[in-house]
């Protein structure tokens, strides 16, 4: 397997992150874990955005991933983290394969609203499920990794962090290869002009379908990791504002590079946590202005900070 | 393109490093030991729960901390600050869901280095925080959230305490009030917000009613979405069933809207409203709520707080600062802060010294302390859960003045399950061992 | 029988409210292709302006009650006009021509800013303007008592819908606007001042949103967050009816309103799912919504 430079860089950064995890304070590790886990969900959003679809219901799979991990431990005796995460991805794939058949017929706002509707239906079902704690949700604990139980506290925090970084790396490399491969380039073509792609003898619909299912799996992974890190799941994960946050982060980062969602998620988390600390009454306003500023000055997202300089160098 | 790739690692690594540096700098800045007692206060500052609960609580915390730092409280709380150390409150918004709250809790403890955390209105947040409090070994007081699962799901909690009462007390108390004042009632109906709080409240209420008021039947139940604001169809559905009592665990804007609409449409004339959280909007109903509507305050708080020296003093300073009487969330916040002060000053450490979380927990466990709501016994859940009585009464509004009439109080042991017994089982078994006055 | 009658009445009342909320959204989308996430905030601003003005009117000596109805509408018009012009001229104008999705996010940022902005202006304590609501009294229909204000709202909503329709279909300006809806580029080529039409449309849309809030304010407690709750409802109604169609919004509102009332009376456990269920069903059979136009696919 030949690695290109981006992949090597990603690998090095991941390694740096893991090492950094050993020297940084607990709150920072937690913040990064959640940010990176959310970035995985954002990757799912971005995958679909590349082909022109905006999902306002990615929380559906985020929630499925989280709840599968939680319920696996609570009710079905699946305590192994890898098994639970895989199960979450599997459930998400099955659900996505079913919903995708319907959803891929839609474009633009109709796709957005319908994906939102499905997410809200899951939210409704969970709110009705008193055995699952309704809106209060339930705790996720006592998980193991290949039979080894990390000690509570710092130990398990590091373990989840490392797992998240490794998952992020794997997903990033896969997505990077996908976008560079012929089929990934076609995604952009679908966004630009679907009819022409059809005339070339390709089926945009099945391409979008594959994209949708893959994005679901990635998002479920993010949800599962969030559940492990937080130690708690609740139906809010499927609420439309959660999905809105993912789209928010996706646009913050831009579609320029596979690393953009990770950077955007980390920046978002930092802006939010310090806004909450310094202006507890108006932190949403700070977020709003940050987003507006990015859109006005960096129309292609935070990533254009990097790519813009590059074009400058080239000229 | 190719020659640009090599730049990626540089940019990314420098970005990560910059963030880490920024974070490290901020972390060390707030970690400075200044001899002050840092308390994290978490409550809703935005969203629909801010008006009725969050802001009154935050206001109570602000005024109380200010007065404590001046040493202005009556005995036994006349020592300056907490155990002689000045209090520094860090107030955080509770909005945003459980995942975000876990993150912010960790930030409070590990970045802001608070010595204790007081907060949480939402039950979901309480449940998510409880295991983290144990993990980080941080003394934490849940001041308002009502879920009975807080200690049922975390039976070994060592650092988590709750100075408010759990929601089953509200509804057992509500049924006892009905049985005491309106024993002939036979037609009950309910309207609850469709989430845990509403569902649990209604389950406890109906179970208790079937034991204490066996003649009564449930004629209608409605579960509209939370924050819906418009209850036209629900009010019709309730009206046509001709209930005598309409029970609701609504709160905040939803509750005020319900009262407004149900009153305008005559439902609250034909039936008596029973609002378990009704006291929180005591000052805002004016003539929009009918006289005789039954309201509760989730314990002896707000309007139902007793006339003791502490409460009179607290009402005075609160009124002075905000030109309003404190509602129950404000009283409950004051209670939690006094609980923390009591624990710190009875932890057996020297003057001005800040006790460790273990010392605080040991002093708080099973303690009996004086509060704005009277005497609080930490008598349930291994000494982590407060036990107090509960009072219900009728709202009356005449000549521009609102008041409470026909208030009836029930002792803690009358409405609280014995140690180790779940509320649902206790109700189903017919309240064995209940001691009522 | 009573409950059937109740379903019809409750359903129409709720539908008229939904229509009020959705009308502004669909007008803006129809002309400008902007899905305005901040529509809920305009609704909330309308509610706050109306509630504070009416509250102030009654707290400072009772004038005649009918004045308060004028104040309600007046507050909404002024608030909608001011906010609409500021947002359109100050922000959106810089963004025209950008991606549709980017516009959604811009309005989302606007929503975040306005939510906190309202908190700065009005605080978090509830505002009430109940006098116009209780003043009209109620009508008894057997066991059912109906608020006259709510019934009047059905009339107002119907009138507003008719007015909008007549304006779009029967006036010169409406004709120009329809030309913009149909094909923006050709309209520009024909000499239509599209920029001006955009300003008019956006201000109309925000004013409609503010009006919906102002007319709702008397029946509710105006608190932070009320705007967030109506966004998804309004979106759903508009998508069901077909984006940009006034008639569609009306039918969508009726469909959702009646289904919801039926659920409350006959199957309360499904109430939570009604709106999304209706939306999924409609879209499954009519992917562009009930009155949406199927666009020709551009090659």
Could you describe the 3D structure shown?
- The complex is a heterotrimer of chains A (315), B (437) and C (299).
- Chain A has 315 residues and is mainly α.
- Chain A is built from 13 helices and two strands, in the order H-H-H-H-H-E-H-H-H-H-E-H-H-H-H.
- A two-stranded antiparallel ribbon of chain A has the order 1-2.
- In chain A, helix 2 runs parallel beside helix 6 (154-180), helix 6 (154-180) crosses helix 7 (182-192) and helix 6 (154-180) packs antiparallel against helix 9 (204-230).
- Mean pLDDT of chain A is 87; it is low at 311-315.
- Chain B is of the alpha/beta class and 437 residues long.
- Chain B has two domains: 38-165 and 306-387, Rossmann fold (3-Layer(aba) Sandwich), CATH 3.40.50; 168-297 and 399-428, Response regulator (Rossmann fold, 3-Layer(aba) Sandwich), CATH 3.40.50.2300.
- Chain B contains 15 helices and 15 strands.
- Chain B has a seven-stranded mixed sheet, with helices on both faces. In chain B, strands 2-1-3-4-5 form a five-stranded parallel sheet, sandwiched between helices.
- In chain B, a hairpin with a 4-residue loop joins strand 12 and strand 13 (385-387).
- In chain B, helix 2 (50-70) packs parallel to helix 12 (328-345).
- The longest helix of chain B has 29 residues, at 2-30.
- Chain C is mostly helical.
- Chain C has one domain.
- In chain C, helix 1 packs parallel to helix 6, helix 1 runs antiparallel to helix 9 (194-216) and helix 6 crosses helix 7 (172-182).
- Chain C starts with a helix and ends in a 14-residue tail after the last helix.
- The relative contact order of chain C is 0.20.
